[in-house]
Design goal:
Radius of gyration of chain A: 23 Å
Distance between the termini of chain A: 14 Å
Structural class of chain A: alpha/beta
Order of helices and strands of chain B: HHHHHHHEEH
Strand content of chain A: 15-25%
Low-confidence stretches of chain A: none
Largest sheet of chain B: 2 strands, antiparallel
Strand order of the largest sheet of chain B: 1-2
Largest sheet of chain A: 7 strands, mixed
Largest interface: A-B, 55 and 53 residues
Order of helices and strands of chain A: EHEHEHHEEHEHEEEEHEEEHHEEEHEEH
Oligomer: heterodimer
Low-confidence stretches of chain B: 1-31
Helix content of chain B: 40-55%
């Protein structure tokens, strides 16, 4: 270790950081992981959910530590400055935000890496799909992804091998949805998911608890804490409740040398490392980099391009709900099983956002019942109407592809500090016309789908909802003048600094970011091992 | 002996097909006469009376006693029993005539009835500061009303893959053929 405390220091014990740590520790490197939040247990979250009053608030069971506040829609940790609130939820605890997720494990499409050259908008990635294909497969094996065989369903992302597990059977509702839409010009696909369709990696098969968010009670669904367990078993040292406040460099400002972090009581500690991997999500990473100003680096760490914190993206979504013309029984099985993928790519991307639509598989038991009580129903009439509506009420949501725009950004707040005196994230954000045009098209599709399903009481929700896919804020590119990391996720400015996060994404695509994060994390580990 | 915290729901789901008629049948026929409420003491609303009122307003003969005890305690803490006592007197005055009960549920009495229904059906009631207070989850009446086709979130719904088939429905109205 040449006098350093650790060979590799990982900041953030979510899925990405833990996967890097696990692979490196397994190869014999000394690895330390610092995590701002605490260790949490699955059973505690399950109990908190069952004893909670707002079962629809996925953050409610994850009570923030006083020293590590977290992203919520209702809280004041995220300081909003822009035309549109960047509504984001993230968990600061060992395991990170994959404690609650739909577990959708899509690969990007080849075209997603070439948005600029194919459609004249956004940016190209410096790496193509082919550079990630093998890592996608490894990531699917690490997470345990169940998906359709390529012979049965082509999801548009070429693959050399089958998914590690066969797809879970679609719910009765999803089957009807696919049948009707596929016969009418849409393309509905089985969603690949990090959810066990058989016993896998020491975890059980999904038995349809319908609680993927906020917590899978039986660990049939992957969550990032699993690689924390593996990393520690392989010899990595994990320090929870350790909030990193600065990354330090050598006097020339070239190599990173270590970090300073705070304990919950405010005591400061320092740890030195040969390589640092930032894996603390797309808001906390750029915030930390911008906080790490020094005399030699007045713009912050890795920020010679002035791109750190900029190009913030998400997958804004608009929604619809309606009563299907027959009982289809949502709420049986996992919470999400199929998606409309017809509009993930096409020449229209030069004009408007691509999008993926997904059918929710949850029963709106609370919402339906509450509305009927408010209307004055009771007794047998109330029960019958609850049953009639809950068996039919479906909702569809979507992910719209957002472009990387420098004005959408996160910075450390000057005025607003958390309990440790650390700046809160301050976000300036807006929804661009490219996304709005895509949303208009989605609302038309929703109308058509509702008509196909004989929908009544059709309710559109055109207000953009956040989907917690925090992308772009340490953007990847070939040119150090307008990007933060290169195609290997290595800082242009600091050769021993890597970033494992969706913050490196140069385009958003239309799918959940986790599998691509995982693939890039494994690639980073190999890069570190290669020296 | 196991001491699972939520045995009733699990047991219920395990044998749902056989048990459903038993669980769903003991509903009072709301359009007919319900059992008149017993007379109240001079003040307050004892737990037994609260449960009798709850049965009359929900139309459910069997309500979970532990949930009722908690709901009653929550209402005491919120100073909410007086409104329930007024509701009780109105329902009592209807003498078991359901139509008369319906006529009596106006104004503050209707609001009191809705609060009662929210607690029993949703398992939560509004607290003082805009917060909600938990009354129950597994034993709520919304869960009971749909237990034959909606697995309660966080509980295993059956053998893996059960969701590929439409559910076996109890003898309750659904207004439609799933096929």
């Amino acid at each position: 270790m040449s006098g350093r405390d650790t060979d590799v220091l990982v900041v953030g014990a979510g899925m990405a950081g833990n996967m890097v740590a696990h692979r490196l520790a397994a190869q014999g490197l000394s690895v330390t992981i610092l995590e701002a939040g605490p260790r949490i247990s699955r059973w505690q979250i399950v109990e908190a959910f069952r004893n909670g009053t707002d079962k629809g608030d996925f953050m409610a069971p994850y009570v923030a530590s006083s020293h590590a506040d977290q992203g919520t829609v209702t809280g004041d940790y995220i300081v909003q400055r822009g035309a549109y609130p960047y509504q984001v939820q993230y968990i600061r605890a060992v395991g990170g935000t994959t404690w609650h997720w739909a577990a959708a494990a899509w690969r990007f499409l080849p075209a997603d890496f070439e948005l600029r050259s194919r459609y004249g908008v956004g940016r190209d990635w410096p790496i193509g799909y082919h550079a990630l294909e093998a890592y996608y497969q490894q990531a699917e094996e690490e997470l345990g992804v169940a998906g359709p065989s390529p012979e049965d369903e082509d999801l548009g992302s070429p693959r050399r091998a089958d998914y590690p597990m066969p797809a879970l059977p679609l719910s009765y509702m999803d089957q009807q949805f696919a049948r009707l839409l596929n016969a009418n010009g849409f393309r509905v696909a089985t969603e690949p998911v990090a959810r066990n369709s058989r016993v896998y990696d020491g975890r059980p098969q999904c038995c349809g608890n319908n609680n993927c968010m906020p917590i899978c009670p039986i660990a049939a669904q992957y969550s990032g804490n699993m690689h924390a367990i593996k990393a520690e078993a392989a010899g990595a040292r994990l320090i929870p409740d350790a909030t990193v406040v600065a990354v330090e460099t050598d006097t020339g400002g070239r190599e990173v040398t270590g970090v300073r972090y705070l304990l919950p009581d405010g005591t400061e500690r320092r740890i030195t490392a040969g390589t640092i991997v930032l894996a603390a999500n797309g808001i906390e990473i750029p915030k930390l980099m911008l906080m790490s100003r020094s005399e030699i680096l007045p713009n912050g760490l890795g920020n010679s391009s002035d791109m750190v914190g900029r190009n913030l993206m998400d997958h804004p979504g608009v929604g619809v709900s309606f009563l299907w013309d027959r009982p289809v029984f949502p709420g049986r099985g996992p919470q999400e099983m199929s998606s409309v993928i017809s509009l993930r790519d096409g020449p229209f991307r030069s004009q408007m956002a691509a999008r993926k639509l997904h059918l929710g598989n949850t029963a709106d038991l609370q919402g339906v019942t509450e509305a009927l009580i408010d209307r004055g129903l009771r007794g047998a009439e109330l029960d019958a109407e609850i049953r009639r509506r809950v068996a039919r009420k479906v909702s569809i949501n979507c992910f719209l592809e957002q472009l990387p725009l420098p004005e959408n950004r996160v910075v450390p707040s000057v005025e607003h500090l958390d309990a440790l005196g650390v700046p809160k994230p301050e976000i300036t954000y807006a929804i661009e016309d490219y996304v709005r045009a895509g949303a208009e098209a989605v609302l038309s599709d929703y109308r058509r789908i509702a008509d196909l399903l004989g929908g009544t009481e059709v309710t559109f929700n055109p207000r953009f909802a956040g989907n917690n896919h925090i992308m772009g804020t340490t953007i990847m590119g070939d040119d150090p003048r307008d990007s933060v990391v290169d195609g290997d996720c290595r800082s242009h400015d600091h050769p021993n600094l890597f970033i494992a996060s969706s913050s490196v994404f140069a385009s958003a695509s239309t799918v959940n970011s986790s599998l691509t994060i995982a693939a890039l994390a494994l690639r980073i580990a190999d890069e570190v091992l290669a020296g | 002996m196991t001491t699972s915290r939520h045995p009733s729901r699990r047991d219920f789901l395990a044998g749902s097909a056989a048990l459903l008629p038993l669980m769903l049948a003991p509903r009072l026929a709301m359009a007919q006469r319900t059992n008149p409420l017993p007379a109240l003491p001079a003040d307050g609303l004892p737990l037994e009376a609260f449960m009798a009122l709850s049965r009359a307003v929900t139309g459910q003969e069997r309500l979970d006693p532990a949930m009722g005890e908690r709901f009653h305690a929550v209402l005491i803490a919120l100073n909410g029993l007086e409104a329930q006592r007024a509701l009780y007197l109105a329902v009592e005055g209807a003498g078991g005539d359901e139509t008369a009960v319906g006529r009596a549920l106006v104004g503050p009495r209707l609001e009191a009835a809705k609060l009662l229904l929210r607690g029993w059906y949703l398992g939560r009631v509004a607290g003082r500061d805009g917060d909600e207070i938990l009354v129950g989850y597994e034993q709520t009446l919304m869960a009971r009303a749909t237990a034959d086709f909606v697995p309660l979130p966080s509980y295993c719904g059956g053998v893996p893959g059960y969701w590929a088939e439409p559910p076996r429905l109890a003898d309750m109205p659904l207004d439609g053929d799933p096929t």
